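Lab manual, section 2.4: Encoding a predicted structure.

Procedure: take the sequence of the chain (127 residues), apply the prediction step described in section 2.3, and record the output as structure tokens. A sample record is shown.
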Amino acid sequence: MVKLRIEIGRRDSREELLEVARRIDEGEDVEFERIVFESYEALRKILTPERLKILHVIKEKNPKSVYELAKLLGRNRRNVIKDLEILEMLGLVKFVEEKKGKRRRKVPVVPYDEIEVSIPVVSCDYD
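Recorded output:
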């Protein structure tokens, strides 16, 4: 089982996330085993119910394209693409390029079987 851990409240996490962002900008493939948010509110802004539903549908239904995923979700394709871009930046979604004849498509994949969220109840800013 491949597990991702999401943590809240570690002050040194900003530098770590900036370093990962720099590596992504330079074209490196970066895999997260841990993501740290500075606050619960920051986590809620990124992992919205709609984005969590995207992860679930990808894992359960295995759509073969972004178009198929949008149809399964009953959502506008452009809005799904925007959410997928955010999830991809965090490493929560990857794309596998498939070629069918002359057409290429990007198949969304969730590389984790489980996401564990750790929320401290002391020494953490919840504002």
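Check your result against the sample. The mean pLDDT is 85.
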